[in-house]
Amino acid sequence: MNLFKISIANLKEKKLNSFLSALLLTLGIGMISLLLLLNKQLDEQFKRNLKGIDMVVGAKGSPLQVILSSIYQIDAPTGNIPLAEVNALRKNPFVKTVIPLSMGDNYQGFRILGTTPKYIEHFNAKLAEGHLYNASMEVTIGSKVARDSKLKIGDQFSGSHGLDSEGEKHEDKKYKVVGIFQPSGTVVDQLIVTRLSSVWDIHEHSEGAQAPAVAELEHTDSQAHADPEPDEEGKDVTSALIQFRNPMGLMTIPRQINDNTSMQAALPSIEINRLFSLLGVGIETLRTLALIIISIAGVSVFISLYNSLKDRKYEMALMLSMGATRTRLFLMLLIEGVSLAVIGFFAGVIAGRVGLWVFSKSAEQDFHYSLGKFALLPEEIYLFFGALVIGVVAAALPSLGIYRLNISRTLAEE
Amino acid sequence: MISSNQLRFSYSAQKRFSFPNIHCNDKETLLILGQSGKGKTTLLHLLALLLTPESGDVVIAGKSVKNLTPQEITATRAKNIGIIYQRPHFVSSLSVMDNILLSNYLANQKEDRQKARHLAEQLGFADHLSKKTNQLSQGEQQRVSIARSLMNNPNIILADEPTSNLDDDNCQRVIHLLKNQSAQIGASLVVVTHDQRLKDEFSNQVFL
After folding, report:
1. Nearest CA distance, B94 vs chain A (angstrom)
2. Which residue among B41, B93, B107 places its CB closest to the CB of A322?
3. Which own/partner pairs from A78-82 qualify as long-range (CB within 8 Å, at least 24 positions apart)?
4. Would you call A325 and B86 a contact, using CB atoms and an 8 Å cutoff?
5. Dist CA A27 CA A33 (whole Å)
6. What are the residues facing A241 on neighbouring strands?
7. Cβ of A57: how many Cβ atoms within 10 Å?
8. Which chain A residue has its CA at the smallest distance from B152's CA?
9. Taking Cα atoms as reference points, which of A54, A45, A107, A100 lies closest to residue A77?
10. Number of helices followed by number of strands (H, E) in chain A
């Protein structure tokens, strides 16, 4: 026999009341836990893919759209920009790297991205099998693409026009898989990477006899890598990722581009902050809601203990007459509140994980991003102490009555 | 052994009680008879140290309880006095067995399951030990509360109307069990009641 055993027996005796209190706590803690997990993982995903990219240039339009489509591959691009203008940026002394991107096709919803080898260097993507694309129409695919589409080295496939899998197929020209990247946790996992010229080839061909005068690049030479810096008159790309040599670039170049070219410059740090502040309103609302639910849980613990204490007044007087001290009984009641808080906390943390898992499933389907990290966060430890405080306070307030209980009168009244 | 000396108690100016002196040696029994409103329960609570008298003294096992601190009073009661109430009350969430063991636990004594089982056999509810107390009949519940009062081998057993809710058969049975059990452990047995059926069972009687 111990206090804990009596407390648990009391909770079991009032199953529905205990269940309601624990359920409310579970709901509140679960919501906060899910928000913390989502916040952390979105933050990580965004930061990881953002690393080292100082500026993105694209066609005029929404700067946020330029960032989302070029860095995260989750929104439609704003349009095309001339490759010549992009390449002109290389001459600027503040610019360190220029990585042109060309997109517009997909395979089973995975984007086919034409780019230069610098892109792969930038994300530090390593090959798991095969080799890097070398010629036009050769592709190297990300780990998630390989897993979900079941493409293997040597397989051929035709891309669909547009960014969703229902687009019209380019049946006449087929891509060939020559390599698969190791999983890197970056956007490369969900991409099919190829030469810029592959994307041009496909669209020129399907658009008929337009501009055959432009000589195709020679890819059949014995280069180990694709031609590093393609520069062709009259060609368009979708956007370009820019790295600066020093922060001075940030001061001058975006203005120059926006004022003097047909392109626009978007700064990822500013746009992502803007995005997060937009999301922040929703997150703030949910967090407030979760806190309200937790407070209601506290009130529920309070009411349920208050009511059961009224019913158990005689029991308390009886135990006091049998030698229990008031402090001992007070502790027993505190344990009831704290047990509910602990149960609510763990159930809530598990519920948060289940929520994240469901969210991750749908995010993976829609955006090919997965959010699969379920470890306990340091913030959740604070949450645990918060839940304990609520349990203790909600149990202590009604239980203080123990110190005022008149044993003789209660026993005589029954 | 328990005795009282010139106990007085008042709930209000109109409701004053002054009680006759009582005395009950070890292994003896005492019946306190009185009609409703005569302060039977008040006297029992004074003897059980649940109430503090206005004046007068109670002597438990040869020691006066005057000038004891509340903690000492609680400890004295837990150690020396087993109380049986008119309506048997229990901690409803615990089993019969745990309710009996509770008196060991709350008096800081070692839990004696052997003894609890032995008492249950003697008092005839050994089959019900794992049930909840509200599944038992009134007579069975009263026998469980007798077992509970005996667990710490008290020096004194105080019973408040232990038979008033019982039929004649159960009344006889309960009173005999009480007398036997208190005789076995050598305790003083004090029964407070208005139940005239008990008149012939006790040789020492006090009328309020």
Report:
1. 6
2. B107
3. A78/A239, A78/A264, A79/A238, A80/A236, A80/A237, A80/A238, A81/A57, A81/A236, A81/A237, A81/A238, A81/A239, A81/A240, A81/A262, A81/A263, A82/A234, A82/A235, A82/A236, A82/A262
4. no
5. 10
6. A56, A99
7. 26
8. A322
9. A100
10. 13, 13
**DSSP label at A246?**
S
Q: Pairing between strand A138-141 and A55-59? A: unpaired
- Angle at the Cα of B121 (from B116 to B125), degrees rounded to 5? 90
Mutate to test the interface with A, among B44, B76, B91 (most CBs of A within 10 A): B91
Cβ pair B208, B39 in contact under 8 A: yes
3-state secondary structure of A94: coil
Q: Give the residue on B whose Cα is nearest the Cα of A323.
A: B78
Residue B151 Cα, gap to closest chain A Cα (Å): 11
**In terms of Cα–Cα distance, which of B156, B155, B125 is closest to B142?**
B125
Q: Is A244 helix (H, G, I), strand (E, B) or coil?
A: strand
- Interface test mutation site (partner A, options B74, B104, B141, B165, max chain A beta carbons within 10 A): B74
Element (H, E) at A160: strand A160-161
pTM above 0.80, yes or no: no
Amino acid at B70: P
| Distance separating alpha carbons of residues A322 and B107, to the nearest angstrom | 7
> Interface pTM (ipTM) of the complex?
0.90
Instruction: Give A112-144 pLDDT, tens digit per residue.
Output: 898 888 888 888 888 888 888 888 888 999 988
In Å, the largest CA–CA distance within chain B is 50
Quick check: helix, strand or coil at residue A214?
Answer: coil
CB contact under 8 A, B50 and A407: yes
Beta carbons of B92 and A315 less than 8 Å apart: yes
* A13 chain-B contacts, CB cut-off 8 A: 92-93
| Chain A residues with beta carbon closer than 8 angstroms to that of B138 | none
pLDDT tens digit sequence for B4-53: 988 899 888 888 888 999 899 888 899 999 888 888 888 999 999 998 89
The B-side interface with A (CB below 8 A) comprises: 41-42, 45, 48, 50-51, 71, 74-75, 77-79, 83, 85-87, 89-94, 98, 101-108, 111
Please, which residues bridge with residue B23 across strands?
B3
